[in-house]
Amino acid sequence: MQIRQYSEFLKFYFARYFARRWCKFWLATMVFVPVNSMFGQHQAIQDPICPHRPVLMIHGMLGSGDNYQYLANYLLTWGYCAQHLHVYNWNTLGRNPNEVKRLDSVINAILQTEQAAQLDIVGHSAGGSLAYNYLSDSARSTRVARYVHIGSRPMPKPAGPSGAIPTLNIYSHGDLAVPGADIAGATNVAFSTYDHFGIVAADSTANEVFHFFYGSLPPPARAWSKSNTATQVQVLQMGDNTPESGATITWYQAPKTIEDATKIQQTVTNDLGKASLGSLLPQQPYMVVCKPREGRAVAYYFPEVTNGALPLYLRTLPNTGMVRMLLQGIPQRTGEAAFVLFGSSGAFLPGGPPLVLNGDTLNTKAITPAAKTVVALFLYDNGDGQTSRQTQGAFAAAPFMNAIDYYLPTSQRPFVLQWKGKAYEIPAIPSSKAVTVVVLP
Q1: Residue 179 reports pLDDT greater than 90
Q2: What is the domain partition of the chain in residue ranges?
Q3: Which of 13, 138, 380, 439 can pair with 338 through a Cys bridge, CB separation 3.0 to 4.6 Å?
Q4: Other CB atoms within 10 Å distance of the CB of residue 387
Q5: If you classify domain 21-214 with CATH, what class do you get?
């Protein structure tokens, strides 16, 4: 398929996807039935150590559980126990008719395991539409005490039958991906500048979420602190979030080249794509290389890793599907690197903190336009050994990401990346060995 044809196909796919998915959820939430009298009560778990209700966080389009890393860690500082904080990883590109049923099974399992009568739900973007669909049923909605709608489309009423579930609606005028608005009858909070992903990671959002759940409470007696316990890892395929079982995870102190790396540990993921790594030193950069049973290795560079409520998420490149078609142009060359710069706390916006690679500013109107909300920027050469900074192929139509023609010779080592006032030395790993993902805070 020619690039122009594929680009038009991608534009059509996403337009049709959003239209059908939003229409489906809109119709589902217009059907309201009588409300259970237990809705809205503050029923905490009767546990003196972990007194809070469980929280289930549902990510949005092309996301995964790590979108909630900052919110989960904020709740830890307010006395939540890690075992009460859950994420729901789902395939936002597929149209699974059983998604609500699957979500219901997960919620029932959480309530049974933690012996809780109800939990709280947080939904971001498309996750908000899924949550509204789930809560439209009177039986299912009895399991939920409170709901938080973040960066998601405005609804006609609060969640639940007849809009009976207390709902916090948080949106930002700076969100150019999903314009928000007040929901009649909900608690509405509007921010000015956060982008579509930045609003999920903001402390202001986390503060609103906690106080909506539990009101104005004093600081907890048991505050969470950074620890050097084992780090949990979960590996998912990019796009559909399929767990990557049998992947080999190798943990290094961050090297300037992969040949200089000092291996700390190696392990293999289980059927859920999970594995446990050793303890970490604070304020230290690390490299984690993930090699799936099939497909390319991905080398993750972390400026620092902090243990928290959620696992450390790694993504592999899928071998099938639309995302594979999008990423198949990333080269495999011995003399060049291929980078992915990932903003874990929000998009790379023009006029925001400078994103500078070896003196070259990358967050510009041409490379990371605000309307595109770029959280993943791919850098690789188109084959001519030169840097033109032109958008690569079908990425012009893809939401939340972009790819530009950028020559990264491995003879230039390391690459110096500046972000939010800090400089990081990124190893020059040949793309024939791994695609390098730099996770920026």
Answers
A1: yes
A2: 21-214, 231-440
A3: 380
A4: 15
A5: alpha beta
